[in-house]
Known about the structure:
Blueprint: H1 8-13, E1 30-39, H2 43-54, E2 59-62, H3 70-74, E3 79-80, H4 84-87, H5 96-107, H6 113-132, E4 137-142, E5 152-155, H7 161-173, E6 177-179, E7 183-189, E8 195-202, E9 205-217, H8 226-232, H9 250-257, E10 262-263, E11 268-272, E12 291-294, H10 308-317, E13 323-327, H11 328-332, H12 336-347, E14 351-354, H13 357-364, H14 368-380, E15 389-393, E16 396-401, E17 404-405, E18 412-414, E19 420-426, H15 445-460
Parallel strand pairs: 1-2, 1-9, 2-6, 9-19
Antiparallel strand pairs: 3-5, 4-5, 7-8, 8-9, 10-17, 11-16, 12-13, 13-15, 14-15, 18-19
Helix pairs in contact: 2-7, 2-15, 5-6, 6-15, 13-14
Amino acid sequence: MTASGITRRTLLAAGLALGCTGLNAAPDETEERYDVVVVGGGIGGLSAALSAAEQNAKVVLLEKNDFLGGDTLISGGTFNAVDPERQRPLGIEDSVEFFEKQILESGGGYNDPKVVRVLAEGAGDAIRWLESYGMRFLPELAEIYGSGWVRAHRPAYPRGRGYILCLTNACLSNGVKIRMKTRARDLLCDPTGRVIGVRADTEKGSVVFRAAKGVILASGGFAANRELLRRYAPEYASLPIDGLPSSTGDMLTAALEIGADAVNLGFVECIPGAPPGIDYQVRLDYNSEDCIMVNSQGRRFTKETGTRREIAAAVSAQKGPCYEIADQGSVERMIVNNQKDLWRGYFAKVAVKDETPEGLARRLGLPEAALVKEIRGALASSRFQKPPFWGVRIHLRIHCTLGGLRIDEKARVLDEKGRPFAGLRATGSLVGNVHGINRLGANGLNSACVFGRIAGTETARGL
C-alpha cells in the first residue's frame, strides 16, 4: 500500500467488509434521535458539538472513556495561530500566507493545499472564539519543538485542561447531551449512502444514535492500535506511545468500511518522551532553541529547530543513545507542569544535573571533552546562560498518527473518487490530509478546533 491512499481491494484483503450496517435498530437495541451526532470528546469533538449547538441543533456527543478530553487533555496545550494583536508588540512579523507556506513545506507535498489554507486562515478566529467562551492564553508567544515560528499560544491553564473545561461548560450550557462510556462502533447509512447515525456500545447495551443532519467524527488516530500500526506503519509498531490507550482508530475503520478514502496511513509522528515505565514526560526540548541534542560521542548531531520528523530521523540514525542538554535558564522558562515532571524525573534518576559541564558529562557517561565543548559553545552563543546544566536521555515515543480520512475544506469526508459523503464530516487526528508527512509543533489542537467548528456549523445548517 502506498502512503497516498488505500484501495477497496486492500480493505477486502484485510478482511474489512464494505458497506453500511443496517438502518434499523435491532429488537434488543434502544434508539435516540438528534440532529447531529459527534463522536469524540477532545477539542475537535467539543468544538464541533458547540458549533452545531450555536446553530440551535439538537446535539449529542459520544465519548468512549469515562472522562472528556482525549489526547487534548494531556497535550502540551500550545495552539498555533497568526495573531498580529499579540505578535506585533513582541516584534514578530507573521502572515497567513507565511503560515500556510510553512505547513505545506512541512507536509512534503502530502497535504491538501485547500485544506491547509483553511487551517492557516481559521486558526486566529478560533483563538478569539475560544476566548469568548472563557479560554485564557498567556501574553507571551513561543516557538516550541518543531513549530518553526513564534506563533504558539500557551494556555493559562495546565496543558490542555483549559480547552476541555471551557468547551465542556459551553456545550452543557448550550444543551449538548454528553454520553460517557459510549463506544461508537458502526456508521449507519440510508439506501442512498447518506450517513444517518451511529451504533454504539454502552454500559446498558447497544444504542442507535440517529442523526437527522449528520455525523461528525472526532475520535482521534490509531497510535494505540498495534494491529493497525503493524498493517500501515510497521516500523513504528514496537514504539511506546505518549497518548491515551483509547486512540485505537475505531471510527477510521468504520469509515473505511463504508468506502471512505484514507491517505498517508504510513506517516507517524514521534517525539522525545520518557523511558519505559514512566507515564509522564521527561524532556528539555519544549522550547526548540533552549536545548542542544548530542549523541553518544557527546557531539551535536541535528538542528534542534528542525521539524519533528527530521529530528526523529536523526535520533534513529545514531548508533547509540542520544541526549538533550539544557541549562537552568531553559528549565526556568518551562511551564510549571513541565518543570514538575522534570524534577520527578530527576528524583526517579532519569534526569541528571550538575554545576559544571565536566560533571554533567561524567553523570551521563559521555566523553568529557566533546560535551564540554558543545556546552561552552552554547554558552558563547547565549543559548545557555547559567548552571546547573541538565541532561536527559532521548526516548522516542509515538505522539500521533498523521494519516487518516481525506476531507475537503468544509471538513466533509471524501470517497476514493473525491466525492463527499452526505452526512459525514471529520476533524482532528482522524484526518489524514491536513499535515502530510510532518506536523508542525502546536498544529494539533488548532487543526482539530478549526475543522471541528466548520464541521459543526455546516452539519447543523444541513449543508
